[in-house]
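By convention, each integer encodes one residue's backbone shape. The lines below illustrate.
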Amino acid sequence: MDTVEINNSEALPLLSLNHVSLLCRSVWDSMRFYEQVLGFVPIKRPSSFKFNGAWLYNYGIGIHLIENPSIEDFDTIVEPRPINPKDNHISFQCTDVGLVLRRLEDMRMKYVTAVVEDEGNKVDQVFFHDPDGYMVELCNCENIPIIPLSSCSFKRRLSSFIKSAPAKCGFMENAMMESLSMEMLNISF
């Protein structure tokens, strides 16, 4: 399988992720979930919209809810699916996974946990569904460093890429990634 590499000069002039838009059966139920469970705050949305919805914001990202009461007629999210960490989801970093677990238990919410390990680093993950069946992950993902594959030596074959992690990077690559990470944090605040 051939891979196509995109030169950075060809990339679109993106800044950051702005929002995630979700269809929901009840704006009220979904707003309550995103406010009470995840700490989002309702914000004003454009008055020109002629459909029921809500905008929420926190952590440098927006959640746009669009009400569609007939969602059951055409979408599979009505069926309660098992919580599967390999399914589509939106992920938020958190500072205390233990506290997340206690709060979810207090709210009697179903959840699944997972642990990811890489070169001695460990990430704790918690997965659960919102009222419409969309999966949410809360994790301490910052425990695994973000290292561009282009700065590390590894075999170019796809099969070896999937089975093995890239080699450790040098001082310069780590310094560059630390600087990039800090700039990304500054942009989101």
